[in-house]
Amino acid sequence: MASNGVCEAAASCRILCPKSARDLLDSVDVFLFDCDGVIWKGDQLIDGVPAALQVLRSMGKNLAFVTNNSTKSRKQYVDKFLGLGLSISEEEIFSSSFAAAMFLKMNNFPRDKKVYAVGEDGILEEMALAGFTCLGGTKDGGKQIEFKTNFKFEHDENVGAVVVGLDKYINYYKIQYATLCIRENPGCLFIATNCDAVGNLTDLQEWPGAGSMVGAICGSTQSEPIVVGKPSPFLMNFLRERFRIPTSRMCMVGDRLDTDILFGLNAGCKTLLVLSGVTTLPALQDPANNIHPDYYTNTVSDIINSLAI
Amino acid sequence: MASNGVCEAAASCRILCPKSARDLLDSVDVFLFDCDGVIWKGDQLIDGVPAALQVLRSMGKNLAFVTNNSTKSRKQYVDKFLGLGLSISEEEIFSSSFAAAMFLKMNNFPRDKKVYAVGEDGILEEMALAGFTCLGGTKDGGKQIEFKTNFKFEHDENVGAVVVGLDKYINYYKIQYATLCIRENPGCLFIATNCDAVGNLTDLQEWPGAGSMVGAICGSTQSEPIVVGKPSPFLMNFLRERFRIPTSRMCMVGDRLDTDILFGLNAGCKTLLVLSGVTTLPALQDPANNIHPDYYTNTVSDIINSLAI
């Protein structure tokens, strides 16, 4: 661990030691940060983050916040950052809800078709900003079904895409709506913002993530979704276009092996696992784990701590 | 189809023609019937069922009703049959909720451990009848979570099994409860009553089945369940013990290829697909389908229609 100050033989060293941190700073122009477990945990900012981001900016680094949490729109993320004392621009935020809207836009999703969301405000707001009509989401959160003889559940035949993300208000109504669209509307897309099993919705424990809602719709439709968030290549291609910098000069900083680190590795980015989120050191070092970041360390602040030495 | 009266060359004939129906009646002592799509559709009895069951009984055949629908207990099924004018005994009913309780009993599930149910009354009642303490289910149907700083969702550490079945009142509370038990209680079992994608909850359309709720819990726990309903061998072993008749003298009659017919085929039963439920003739004859029943026909009544010829 960085905290014990030991850097083993360079060839096998995966700990972010002062030397490797300086190498990283020299070779990277864009730092891509996951948010939950990296910048904050629930509503708690992780120690040292504001200073680290400030130093990186002062060194001319570009920052991007790449989160699979689809419950917020980019605007809501700006507010969340601000509430924690961090000033971030909307253009620096790449959420999976935004990715879903961009996926539809880049694939020329017809304007006369609608989107059905199993998810929260983030998806609805990003769809509206991209000019798409979006049904479901929070609007269907309280809906119940009364099962009566001859009752037929009606759905909109103009829904051409179902977008599924984390939904704390998941219910049978939404599952049936999404299922009918995917099974009965010809060509209807099934898009998952991401498939994270769990996430730190609060700072004390983990909660079911979008993987749970996606699993529910896979189970009823026997279909597999198009994933637009991490670790899918869609979001990385989008970032590459945005920054116009080779991925070898980007570093993905995250707390999850199967989303963040895989996302970076697949694209040829440098990768840094921080242990401030869901992944523990034993999980990283488990022989069953086959996702190996370039470096690991405790928290984001370790990236700049080397500068003080 | 039986209705067009054509029986093709015997070797390739899979339609239940009068001759094959008579052969079936001669060679089978126990008829295992699925319910939804076979006996009824939603709240509508399928034509000719009462007469067919009566004739089978008069011929000395044993009948068993083997359903993956876990929302009802055996007692509730007796009431449903009665409401449709059919007198069936509780001992003739083998529901997946009952199978879940029997699985725990036969595996000596400790009496001081509890069961958490993502499901409806059927699971709760069968667990209580088997002497197990069962939490969740309908009791947690209306529960919501208020996300506050320092909020910790508490779960019972004595839950030793999570049983997941069809749950029309699925919510985030239950998903989190089940997820915490499976992820954090050492040795906690994850049992699925079944994994049916959809079912005829009403007579006009299909609705998400237990596969959806099981998918949600798989998605958040990244675990695979033990399945006790069709097509798993557990329920068949139980039926074999109960009737003490070789499976070659049993016939599974169902409307689903991937549960009913597979269940029968795996055990060496004779199998009869009825087209009165979810499977269409094109789906049966699709080259991609690799589950082939011994026979298929329109409805259960075709089994005894041959006797009148």
From TrEMBL, chains A, B:
Mg(2+) binds at D34, D36, D255. GO terms for biological process: photorespiration. InterPro entries: HAD-like_sf, HAD-SF_hydro_IIA, HAD_sf, PGP_euk. Its main location: plastid. Coiled coil: none annotated. The keyword Zinc-finger does not apply. It holds the Pfam family Hydrolase_6. Its EC number is 3.1.3.18. GO terms for cellular component: chloroplast. Substrate binds at K230. Its cofactor is Mg(2+). One of its GO terms (molecular function) is phosphoglycolate phosphatase activity. It is found in: Plastid, Chloroplast. Belongs to the HAD-like hydrolase superfamily. CbbY/CbbZ/Gph/YieH family. Photorespiratory enzyme that dephosphorylates the 2-phosphoglycolate produced by the RuBisCO oxygenation reaction. This is Phosphoglycolate phosphatase. It comes from Spirodela intermedia.
